[in-house]
Amino acid sequence: MNREVTIIKTAAENALAQTFTQARTRLPGDDAVAAQRQAAFDVFTKEGLPHRRVEDWKYTDLRVLMREAKPLASPPDAAARTSAKTAGAVLRDIDARRLVFVDGAFVAELSDVANLESGLIVRSLGQALADGDPLLTAHLGKLAPAKDVAVALNTALMGDGAVISIAAGSTIERPLHLVFLASAKPAATFVRSLVVVEARARAMLIESHEGPPGSDYQVNAALELFVGDEAHVDHVKIINEGADALHVSTLAAAIGAHARFNAFTYTAGGAVVRNQLFLNFDGEGTVAGIRGATLLKGSQHADTTLVANHIARDCQSREVFKTVLDDEAHGVFQGRIIVRPHAQKTDAKMMTRALLLSDRAEADNKPELEIFADDVQCGHGATAGALDDELKFYLMARGIPEAEAEALLIQAFLGEAIEGIEHAGLREALMESVAAWLLARGRVGDA
Amino acid sequence: MALLEIEDLHVEIDGKEILKGLDLTVNAGEVHAIMGPNGSGKSTLAYVLAGKDGYQPTAGEVRFNGKNLFDMTADERAAAGMFLAFQYPLEIPGVATMTFLRTALNAQRKKRGEAELSTPEFLKKVRDLSGTLGIEPDMLRRAVNVGFSGGEKKRNEILQMALLEPRLAVLDETDSGLDIDALKIVAEGVNRLRSPQRSFVVITHYQRLLSYIVPDIVHVLSAGRIVKTGGKDLALELEARGYAEYQEEAVA
Q1: Å between A365 CA and nearest CA of chain B
Q2: Where among A283, A310, A330 does a domain terminate?
Q3: Would you call A372 an interface residue with chain B, using a CB distance cutoff of 8 Å?
Q4: Assigned domain for A298 exists
């Protein structure tokens, strides 16, 4: 007997359907974009919010974690714009070109779009969609996996974001910093960005996401990144959302031949975070470092899901993800390295480590290798454990108080991932962030 | 003046009594050697003095500089002048040796109410000391003990001791795993620190180290107690005759 099982829609699913119905005619873009939105929304309608029986979302059941869907954010008012002036403070010492988004909308007067370096073009997605920018036609939606429901919702409801192109051979000295700020309004934002770095160009792209505590706003951010042959691109994402926020973000990248690519994610904020990285190594001879540091406390939940898809031969990728968990926090790492049949001589090594500071914290690690080529060097390792008492005693026997000894060991633990960042200022800024987190842990200050 | 007074110390590890009524008094400026067969409780004594978790006494008293040692945590003992040179110094990936040295020194100074050393003062001090111990500047930039040879690790322990200037240094089998050249460097490092105020407890299985660090008093530790005390010649006697008679004595 075959019976169609109808899953009852959750309140959040119904609200999302309503949001889309109401918003679709107002959202920017021509008929082709509207059709793209509809097709994406159909994926959501069919699949619903991902839940624990969907393997890729096993540990992050959005049907449960997303009780309701917030209304789409309205354009930021004066107060919201004012609060944005101090956003991205973690990186205040870094001379970066800031592109500021408040509640998902580009704010030109807070952004630094004057005197662009030669070869650099920066636009807002809202404007580019309204104008029918050919860059979008050629690239938007070509990378992000259409079947992924988070991506599908983003495509259906994308309102604004950054569209950046960097011409072949250009070196953009100043990092580009996309500052995403949520104001106090508990709303939903769907930001979508597209970055196209042509051959032999060089750039560093930072995105930071933050917002106030006490507001259960929702962020769905997606970035499609094209890295040309022999280009050198560093991508850094800092997730410092407010304590009650829900954050889902996706980086989908296609990397050309003989390129250098580094991606780093720093996660310390948000009630529920899902950080997705879908990386395609399309060209041979590329070297990539994919790293992350996550610090969780209270009842925070953060999930990093990575797919490194080696399509072309002779690429090297290193994946290093470190998570520190305190209290009842829940950390998830799912990392999959795929080596396609033509990707001979692939050298891919993935390491994920969780450091549990509390007996109640939970770390789930799911590393996977799918190898279809026969001449490769691939490996993965995963560990989870508490601070090493022997090391702590060694430090204390030299006069270092317990809390400071713990802080030193935690910094050292995360250091292995953070030290992979090439930009010294950024590395120091993140280590300072870690130090501040440790101080807020309350025990260092007591010493 | 007695710097360290141990009276009738009993210590159990995992329910097994390891130290069974140990008495020892170390006066300021003295160098004591504690020799004994494997399993006699030498390393346990070192850990009890340094304050390792799980090494608490079941009976007895230890006064350090007149204060009850067991009222102090490991870091407080260090700040009060206790130093343990580890038999197996640990590797701490991700913590640069310089950071480690500086954090330790400043933590101790802070606890004693002293000002932190300025960066130039600190650097000069470390450079001078490491030079005398044959420690390359490159080692100081590396993570603590990571990739160091056995001899380098032991020299690094002595560097820490020289920098922290303790009142009492307990050297736990510092000679193990050292070749003769490294042994001389380590011994010279210790001898330079000898002073009327500073005391040493040198724990060793072999007499060899005591040819270079000449002790004032030698004790034989067997089955958890000091069973014989003598002058430096006792070490030579032990080297010639072994520990057998003391093991029998302890059992009897």
Answers
A1: 22
A2: A283
A3: no
A4: no
Instruction: Give the residue on A whose Cα is nearest the Cα of B166.
Output: A398
Tell me the one-letter amino acid at A13: E
Write the pLDDT tens digit of every residue in A90-124. 888 899 999 999 999 999 999 999 999 999 999 99
The domain boundary, picked from A283, A317, A333, lies at A283
**Confidence band, pLDDT 50/70/90 cuts, at residue A446:** very low
Q: Is A340 contained in some domain?
A: no
Q: Which residue has the tokens 């009327």?
A: B196
CATH of the domain at B229: 3.40.50.300
DSSP letters spanning B44-101: HHHHHHHT-TT--EEEEEEEETTEEGGGS-HHHHHHTTEEEE-SSPPPEEEEEHHHHH
Question: What residues have CB less than 8 Å from B103, skipping those under 6 apart?
Answer: A400, A404, A408
> pLDDT class for A5, splitting at 50, 70, 90?
low
Q: Is residue A211 situated within a structural domain?
A: yes
Count of domains observed in chain A:
2
Instruction: Tell me which residues of chain B have a C-beta less than 8 Å from any C-beta of chain A.
Output: 50-53, 73-75, 77-79, 83-84, 86, 89-90, 92-95, 99-100, 103-105, 107-108, 111, 143, 160, 164
Amino acid letter, B44: T
A399 and A268, same structural domain?
no
* Nearest CA-CA partner of B186 in A67, B169, A290: B169
A80-94, A214-228, A252-266, A317-331: which has the minimum mean pLDDT? Answer: A80-94
How many beta-carbon pairs below 8 A join chains A and B?
A: 77
If one counts every other C-beta atom within 10 angstroms of the C-beta of residue A390, the result is 12
Overall number of domains in chain B: 1
A390 chain-B contacts, CB cut-off 8 A: 90
How many residues are listed for chain B in this entry? Answer: 252
In a domain, A368, yes or no: no
Cβ–Cβ under 8 Å, residues B182 and B190: no
Pairing of strands A272-281, A176-181: unpaired
For the entire predicted model, the pTM comes to 0.91
A431 touches chain B (CB under 8 A): no
Mutate to test the interface with B, among A394, A427, A428 (most CBs of B within 10 A): A394
Residue A413: its chain B contacts at CB < 8 A?
A: 94
Q: Please give the average per-residue pLDDT across A250-279, as a whole number.
A: 98
